[in-house]
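Case study 2.
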Amino acid sequence: MLQYKESFIDYVWQNGLFDLKDLQTTAGEKLEIISFGKKNRSDGPDYFAGKVRLGETIWVGNIELHVSSSDWLLHRHQLDPAYHNVVLHVVLKDDKVILNHVGQAIPTLQLQSRIPRYIYDHYEHLQAAEQWVPCANMLKGVSELTRIQCLDRMCIERLESKVRKIQNILAANKNDWELSAVTLLAQAFGSPLNGQAFERIINSVADRALKSLRSKETSLHALLLGQSAMLEPHKGKDPYVSTLHAEYLFLANKYRLRSLREKSCKFFGLRPSGFPSIRLAQLTAVLHGVPQLFSEMMEIKSQHQAADLFRQKLPEYWDCHYSFKKAHSPRQKQLTDNFIRHLLINAVCPLQFCWASLHKDEQKKAEAIELLQSLPAENNKIISKWEELGITSNNAADSQALLYLKREYCDQKKCLECQIGHVLISRKNT
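Prediction:
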């Protein structure tokens, strides 16, 4: 049998999905809900400023929700003064009389028999489902409007989750937006396999070293490739590598640097164009060619503009190399359109949205979202699976929303908090 959680009670209460006629407390007192209260997202009672009529008296105060009334004692609310002003205890099942701090029984509303059977059935079906997403066999009944509204919300939530990550980067960089932009772009150049390693490379370089060497191409390549520990195994095998290695040793001594451990950057499973060696060289070329990276990234409004910014010329060595192991026939290592879009989705748009959020610039936030919407949808296994279920992505904002929906809601079966889930659970059987 499904064990109900407090989130189910909260969902029912918040949406008024129970029979409100002829309400009575478990003690038989007439009850009227005047206001369900305001959701509390911090510690303390679940809802503030609730308003109820008990008998002929109107009470204003807090409302607490539980699966069973005995959970009040289990959670030790009787010892917490924050719960002294609870005017109504809402439970699925009343299994114990609960007294307040002055020894009086707290008015209790039992919902068990007042919640429609179809609410239970839909919720139990979703929670027990073992499909790729819980609602896979129910999605056809969801309107296009609901889908659009859900994806719009998921897109914003995904961007907001990235804002929190960028705020952590900012805090680590003492609110230096330029260095934070460099870090964010490094993550994007290295992701998904080497994003963290690239971030560690940037973090391991003294801020003073990075700033002073941005204008010195060879030194900057030596600094970052040396920190990656990819130069050491190949020193002496090639004049260019030997030059970089010698320069790195000088810089490491000057700035007291310690490189990452060897093999911190992963090659296995990557195509040559995605090897960390060529990606780090491309990142370095951007840092050298774009000295005011943060300002330039904030001004990007199109994929074409991003391509002009990020497609920087590499040293001639890379015309014949993807890594330091062996040479190949000459070919340009220009960033592809797909990779430019990857940088926009994972670095540029989040950076713009973060800055706008922290500066309360609604116009700039809208522009960041519009930039996402101007890009084609991503193409991966998760997006393809959504398409099989009839949920299509019209642009990158949609595909980002679907990735977030799957990971943060569907995989965790948070159907009660999902707009599509709400429609499916609350819909009456026909």
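The mean pLDDT is 95.
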